[in-house]
Design a protein that fits this description.
Number of helices: 8
Number of domains: 1
Low-confidence stretches: 1-69
Helix content: 10-25%
Oligomer: single chain
Structural class: alpha/beta
Strand order of the largest sheet: 2-3-1-4-5-6-7
Order of helices and strands: HHEEHEHEHEEEEEHHEEH
Distance between the termini: 47 Å
Shape: globular
CATH architecture: 3-Layer(aba) Sandwich
CATH topology: Rossmann fold
Length: about 350
């Protein structure tokens, strides 16, 4: 595997804010046991190659069976957001993102994690770190929210547990990043087949190179979903502020905007981002809070929609249909208004079944 190490000059520094709070578990997921969802393989050993054709992502792909099941993931009761956004309603009417490629631009992913083993089908390292793995502990958490295996007797379940991942390491082992690295990562992800690009990163200043990369992704049929930032202000951050990016704020269990979350007219939607339980490096699990993790929930929904929707306007791409479905599947949050509101999978399911005019 060729690891790219591209260090370009820049002055942008990203600070990942992950507040560790209220570690006590939540029993809100008790009802999930009665919800039929697509069954996931316990493990995957056939997609270890970074050659995407060999991985089965082109041509005849391996498809997990769609059948109801009672998830046996031991920590599912800690994932309060799953029932809060009514993900079971969407799982009942769609697939679970079967073999959709989601690129995670972050601090890397622990590819050997028990709940992610075999998920990463290609990777690139655009930092000065000697490894593409996750040392900082941020990217692995995001990856689990999106794509952790379900019903495998281990850990948690992801929003789109049948999706595959591209590990695009753009932030170093100290959590710092440059806009140029994010731009390079977006282009690499698109060129390697990503339809969903998760950027749980906030950059303080605009970048011509980064905006060009965002436009490149949209023009090639991908959707970029990015964190709105964790300063509790209306000040835009990038790439979330750009036109062809879905900017995501964070909400708490009572549907109020999280105190740390940015907000404003430029923010498109919100998702649960408080006390989010997910995978951590070293076969560990834990809680994190922030718009980074809210972003991951939207990316998971986008993966499901790419595997569900059809090209209604005949432009050859689905990213516009996916964005419309996400926007139409929101409920307004309390307090500060955030774009279309907080994501709601039941509303998305209704929109997919009976599209709005």
């Amino acid at each position: 595997m060729k690891i790219l190490r591209i260090i370009l000059p820049g002055v942008i520094i990203i600070a990942f804010l992950t507040v560790m709070v209220r570690v006590a578990g939540d029993n809100a997921m008790a009802a999930i046991a009665a919800i039929p969802v697509p069954k996931m393989p316990a493990e995957n050993t056939s997609l270890n190659s970074v050659d995407m054709a060999e991985a089965g992502l082109e041509g005849n792909a391996i498809v997990a069976p769609f059948e109801p099941f009672v998830p046996n993931d031991p920590y599912v009761e800690k994932q309060w957001a799953l029932t809060h956004i009514q993900i079971g309603e969407l799982w009942q009417t769609t697939t679970s993102g079967s073999e959709i490629l989601v690129a995670i631009l972050d601090t890397g992913i622990d590819k050997s994690h028990e709940d992610l083993n075999g998920k990463v089908v290609a990777e690139v390292n655009l930092t000065s770190s000697p490894v593409a793995d996750d040392v900082y502990g941020h990217g692995t958490h995001v990856a689990g929210i999106i794509a952790a295996y379900g019903d495998n007797g281990l850990g948690v379940i992801g929003i789109a547990p049948q999706s595959w991942l591209l590990n695009v390491k753009v932030a170093g082992d100290d959590g710092r990043c440059q806009a140029s690295a994010v731009a390079q990562g977006i282009i690499w992800a698109v060129d390697n087949g990503a339809l969903v690009i998760n950027v749980s990163i906030e950059i303080k200043e605009p970048s011509v190179e980064l905006e060009a990369a965002v436009n490149y992704a949209w023009e090639h049929g991908a959707v970029i979903i990015a964190a709105a930032g964790n300063e509790g202000s209306q000040t835009p951050v990038y790439p979330a502020y750009y036109e062809h990016v879905i900017a995501v704020a964070a909400t708490e269990p009572d549907d109020t905007l999280a105190l740390l979350s940015n907000y404003g007219e430029w923010v498109d939607m919100a998702a649960p981002g408080f006390d989010i339980y997910s995978t951590m490096p070293g076969n560990d699990y834990g809680y994190k809070t922030g718009t980074s993790f809210a972003t991951a929930y939207v990316s998971g929904l986008a993966a499901i929609l790419f595997d569900t929707l059809t090209d209604t306007n005949g432009n050859g791409y689905l990213n516009d249909e996916v964005q419309a479905a996400l926007e139409n599947g929101c409920q307004q949050v309390n307090g500060f208004e955030v774009g279309y509101g907080r994501i709601d999978a039941a509303s998305i399911a209704a929109f997919v079944i009976s599209p709005k005019s």
